[in-house]
Design brief:
alpha/beta; TIM Barrel; binds iron/sulfur cluster; globular; binds zinc ion; eight-stranded mixed sheet
């Protein structure tokens, strides 16, 4: 299905000599960070070739492929993009930065194994102290980890860390059924656990993105799944957990469903509800993302009503920067919150998630002219039983 939707993605040939850089207000809190507290984080997205998973299938809400380059990106381009970052981002003001690609920084189809250490050495020599890269778990190998740390932090390379490179995962959900059939992530919990184990044993910090606003799920199912996933990530050592609120990007399944009235972006109140339900020891790890910045601007962001969207976003932003829950507690009780409670939050499903997904897949197959025998119904039902969604 995703392949059919992706067929119309334009053949982008972005300027390969410059990187995308935008800034987000965050809070730093782990012992490995060069400083603690509110921080403006530069997010460098290299204009690499697209995520391989996105090109072949892709996650249902993803728009990273729109910021990727369809013309070949060479090592020379990537070195030039790194020089561009060094020219534009001052390491004295910004010692820590997210430096990543449009999918997986550790996939050699995006960043070659030869050029990756060259780029990291350039960043170290320029004075940057701490990096966060993003990757799917299947691209993590001991060799790549070692090559990165040797280039960026030769002082810690021979030891067991902590190393000043953190690895970020789009975990989205710790539930295999949700991962597979609501998000189409193409990975299982075990894949992440293996990657977490390897990183921990080698002294690398890591963090996880958790998706809020998953299609096919009711708001309550979505929040419960996010809560379980947050506990899973935290209990396995994730230093930060970023709750990513789905936004609407072109050529995604979520956009396709929205246009036909079968999906709606979550209200921002859903994120507020989630924060309120978390015990403080888990909540303190959370920052909410996806509400106002993205490498490629989405068509729509999650919101509340015209009167209070900016106010709620502001409160979430202050929470992100300070970790003070008072900012969330003090959100003005706009009438639309009641509307959320009586509407989106009150929706009860009439069938199991498994049944709803099978019927939605059947509709999609018909609409997109795909043979419905391709729907892996037996596997889907088996996994639904295993994860209690049957
Ligand atoms: S969310 Fe990440 S893994 Fe999924 S398609 Fe997008 S870039 Fe690839
Ligand atoms: Zn409102």
């Amino acid at each position: 299905m995703q392949q059919v939707l992706r067929r119309q993605v334009p053949h982008t040939a972005l300027d390969p000599w410059h990187a995308d850089i935008y800034y987000e207000e965050v809070r730093l809190h782990t012992p490995e960070d060069p400083r603690a507290g509110p921080y403006v984080m530069p997010l460098v997205t290299l204009r690499t070739n697209p995520c391989r998973w996105s090109a072949s299938a892709g996650c249902v809400m993803c728009g990273y492929h729109l910021g990727a380059n369809r013309a070949p990106v060479t090592d020379q381009h990537l070195v030039a993009q790194t020089e561009d970052v060094i020219r534009r981002v001052n390491p004295v003001v910004y010692p820590s930065l997210v430096f990543t690609s449009n999918g997986s920084f550790l996939d050699r189809a995006e960043v070659s194994d030869e050029v990756r250490p060259v780029m990291l050495r350039m960043l170290r020599e320029a004075g940057f102290q701490f990096l966060t890269i993003e990757t799917r778990p299947e691209y993590i190998t001991s060799n790549r980890l070692y090559a990165m740390v040797k280039a960026f932090s030769p002082d810690t390379a021979q030891g067991f860390g902590p190393h000043p490179i953190s690895v970020s995962f789009g975990l989205e959900s710790s539930d295999d059924f949700v991962q597979q059939y609501c998000i189409n992530k193409g990975r299982r919990r075990e894949d992440y656990l293996a990657a977490f184990d390897l990183l921990r044993s080698r002294g690398f910090p890591f963090d996880c993105y958790v998706l809020l606003g998953k299609p096919f799920m009711t708001a309550q199912e979505d929040v419960k799944d996010a809560e379980r996933t947050i506990r899973f990530a935290a209990d396995h050592g994730s230093g930060y957990i970023f709750v990513m609120i789905t936004n609407l990007v072109d050529y995604s399944l979520t956009s396709y469903l929205t246009e036909r009235g079968r999906y709606t972006l979550p209200s921002l109140w859903r994120a507020v509800e989630l924060l309120g339900r978390l015990p403080p020891e888990y909540r303190r790890l959370i920052q909410i993302k996806g509400i106002s910045h993205a490498p490629v601007s989405p068509r729509n962001y999650a919101r509340t009503c015209d009167l209070c969207t900016e106010h709620v976003k502001g409160a979430i932003n202050f929470w992100n920067q300070t970790g003070e829950f008072e900012h969330i507690r003090a959100i003005y009780p706009c009438a639309c919150r009641n509307g959320f409670r009586k509407g989106e939050w009150a929706v009860q499903a009439e069938a199991s998630l498994c049944q709803r997904i099978v019927s939605e897949y059947q509709i999609l197959a018909e609409e997109l002219d795909i043979d419905s025998d391709l729907i892996p119904e037996a596997d889907l039902r088996t996994l639904a039983v295993a994860e209690n969604w049957a």
